[in-house]
Description:
The complex is a heterotrimer of chains A (about 350), B (about 350) and C (about 325).
Chain A: E1 4-19, E2 25-41, E3 45-49, H1 56-63, E4 71-76, E5 79-80, H2 86-93, E6 96-99, H3 113-123, H4 133-143, H5 160-172, E7 178-182, H6 190-207, E8 210-215, H7 218-224, E9 227-232, E10 235-241, H8 242-247, H9 252-260, H10 302-306, E11 312-313, E12 320-321
Parallel strand pairs in A: 3-8, 3-9, 6-7, 7-8
Antiparallel strand pairs in A: 1-2, 1-4, 4-5, 9-10, 11-12
Helix pairs in contact in A: 3-4, 3-5, 4-5, 5-6
Chain B: E1 20-31, E2 34-46, E3 51-55, H1 62-70, E4 78-87, E5 90-91, H2 97-106, E6 108-111, H3 115-118, H4 125-137, H5 141-154, H6 160-163, H7 173-185, E7 191-195, H8 203-220, E8 223-228, H9 231-237, E9 240-245, E10 248-254, H10 255-260, H11 265-273, H12 312-316, E11 322-325, E12 328-330, H13 335-340
Parallel strand pairs in B: 3-8, 3-9, 6-7, 7-8
Antiparallel strand pairs in B: 1-2, 1-4, 4-5, 9-10, 10-12, 11-12
Helix pairs in contact in B: 4-5, 5-7, 7-8
Chain C: H1 6-11, H2 33-37, H3 43-51, H4 55-72, H5 109-145, H6 147-162, H7 165-177, H8 185-216, H9 219-227, H10 231-267, H11 279-286, H12 295-322
Helix pairs in contact in C: 3-12, 4-5, 4-12, 5-6, 5-8, 5-10, 5-12, 6-8, 7-8, 8-10, 10-11, 10-12, 11-12
Amino acid sequence: MTENIIEVRDLVKHYPVTRGVVFKKTIGHVKAVDGVSFELKAGETLGVVGESGCGKSTLARVLMNLEKPTAGQVLYKGQDISKLSGGALRRLRRQIQLVMQDPYTSLNPRMTVGDLIGEPFEIHPEVAPKRSRRDKVKELLDLVGLNPEHINRYPHQFSGGQRQRIGIARALALRPEVIVCDEPVSALDVSIQAQVMNLLEKLQAEFGLSYVFIAHDLSVVRHLSDRVAVMYLGKMVEVGTEDEIYERPTHPYTQALLSAVPVPDPTVRESKAIIRLQGDVPSPVSPPSGCRFRTRCWKAQDVCAQEVPLLQIRRGSDHPSACHFAEKREIVATHEAA
Amino acid sequence: MSEQSAPGADGSGRPSGRLLEVDGLRVEFRTRDGVAKVINGVTYHVDAGETLAVLGESGSGKSVTAQTIMGILDTPPGFVTAGQVRFHGKDMLKMSPEQRRRIRGEGIAMIFQDSLSALNPVFTVGFQIAEQFRIRRGMSRSDAKKRAIEMLDQVKIPNAKGRYSNYPHQFSGGMRQRAMIAMSLALDPEVLIADEPTTALDVTVQAQIMDLLGELQRERQMGMILITHDLGVVADVADRIAVMYAGRIVEEADVYDLYAKPAHPYTLGLLNSIPRMDEKGQELRTIKGLPPNLMNIPPGCAFNPRCPMAQPVCREKVPPLLQLGRGRASACHFAEELVNRD
Amino acid sequence: MSDPSTASIVSTPPATMPTEAGSGAPTNAGLPENAKKQKPRGLLGDAWRDLRRKPLFWISATFILLFVVMAAFPSLFTSGDAVNGALGRSRVEPSSSAWFGYDVQGRDVYARVIYGARASIVVALLSTILTLLFGGAMGIIAGYRGGWVDAVLSRIADIFFGLPFVLGAIVILTTFNGSGTDNGEWTIMGLVILSLTVLSWPVVMRLMRSSVLATKEADYIVAARALGAGTGRIILKHLLPNCLAPLLVYGTIMVGSFIGAEATLSFLGIGLKSPVVSWGIMISEAQNYIRVSPFLLFFPSAFLVIAVLSFVMLGEAVREALDPKLR
């Protein structure tokens, strides 16, 4: 059994909605993340999927300690990271790194690649002595498949995929244990996306990294993840191994999500049944009572409006699901949802 | 570069009964840093009631082609240097701006990826749709409003009457894309160009929008050009597919043929590099390298530096887009071998 | 992932991805020939390349250089005496011996115009630098800290912004530099510089604040925070270089308008005073003789106009060069 490197307990992040300029009045809260618990084991990849507004990017920010949680804890090896500050926080930053979505905006356009990848060493000078830094940067460039001679170039002289490699090299510089990847390949073209995914896998094998891999693309998540968590409106609705989620989903939202993914194979066009969800995701300012998915769910009963379904293992299923009526369902065969 | 021969283009320039044809189109962008050859001889066509998917990655020229068809290419820096765009057999590139404007909306309409910036934020959604009826059809204010509400209803916007007076920012992404569709279909176009219509949307919403587009297209027997990079979406809705690379069509085929037996190594590479939902693969087989710089396209086949099958001939001769059988064409010197291998 | 605009097509580097991803083998990119010539250059480098091709830039830069040299080494241009004159030469018209003629006190106008550049340029440059530093710092604090700090600073700026420029300057300068006061040359210059700064910083602050606000949320700032970068580092390394462009442009234009403002204040008699030489003083002194000796007014005014125009044109050229949309 491997140890838990990160444990998240009942994490809540609310953003106040305010009105007024000088005298601010809080008129509500955006419940971006509302009670999320999970753990990340050493060396594994946890995929987090969900649609826009489900809180997955907020989750990344809280995990990175860029935002303080409203309630709950993020434990790194048993230590609550949101309580850290000063030197302790800086030391923690060496262990958890971030790869961001947009390779065009996540690199400072006024810095050369050498400065960008060297910046982690300047912030954490104890990691590498000054003399060796340039060589380290070149090593990193080489490691992520870029030409070390391009060390003096600026980001705009690289393509999107290459920039994402620069971002990965930067995250890797301090040899962290965990990398939080926030949609790292969704801005890239198909052929480039595959290259970056392979690179991430290679690096994980080489350095024993743990990834929290946040994405909206279910195929990408399945390809990289050992375990997958599905989020909807600030809550986790289902967690399981990659196999459990993709082959035996029990939460209606997961089922609908999976059925909607276009399959790159025209021959299944006719046989495939898409569960068509009605309407849009409700506002996170005032989420529905009880189960948050009930407004779009075809199984919704009275109990769904009254009781919040807990994320737990239910009868007839082998992994936790937050649905009162969790059950397996053949995604391809039937289709009765309206 | 050698001339291309392609299905649909008989080269004579006389009306061929096609609804919309792009024939030998070349576009370049003249910039401070040099000339980028964005489109290098693109030929495709779309007939009534069919969906042609134009598939390609960023910089392949798929959107620029669409902009040229619509006549909304930014000039400068973009210049059409050769080719024709024929609508009902007439070359639109030779028409007066007034004639072209008349075709826009009524003949050919377009929907864009970013619906938030494509709708004017200071007018209500309904007003923007109704305005077209008033200006182009000369309808009265109240008739136009009635028609606009009908349109909103047709694109399945719930409570269309109430939504008429909402502003674009009050709509969700999916609703906005529906409103955009309503707007572009208002004047009953014969051809609809959809440029990445669902790229900015979530999967569940994407499915709704693609369904809607398919339904409306069948109802109205429109020709649809679907521009996308998503091999999944294409497989779901397209009849024919044209794959673009570095400003050229490298393969054109029926959707089933393309996925079953790609006839160009680029198509094959693309299909191999997408992670599949239905299996947890090992390492993805990637296409090595990057797309070429359009200011400096490699000689011969533009794909040759990335191609696993490249031979010396690929660096010397530009492979023409040759027919390979019914409705099928490939611009690869080794297309036959590729299709005929097991 | 739609097709990129021209800009992004152009910026696609001519480099090819060296090796197949995942192989991890050393890379030796097959760069096309033209890529090797490409030196690394940033956005400022781009701007410089653009500037070099603008005649407007060269013309204004030449003039500015001329004025700066004039201010630093007036003796290079004239051997005349700017301060002492012989009343016998009062209002002698321009001639080959004295190109610009002599003023009421019989002083060489050419020498005075040359020596007058110093006061104008020094006042304008110093007040610009001071305004940029102070306004810029306030803008960074307000934009970066946000919240009530921003609210308070912005309101203070609004108050100063609301003061009419000339009126404000008159109030400040008559208080400290009214008739009867006996301030030295440098004290007066200091006072003029101070009043220009006090009345102009809100504009710079607003500019800086809005670009900091826009840049603060940029992904690369978040990335730097995630690495553990401190506030100082984020401001100096990440915010400042990316917010400087509009300030640079405004600063150049501001030098021009400050030259004019200095002249205005001197003309009104509340700025620099004789025996200090400045264009404003010369214009002020010449006004009484505009009917009989118009050349007394013409020469300092011409220099003033050319100096102001040069800076404004330079600012315009820099703005165009820095604005990628105009390329």
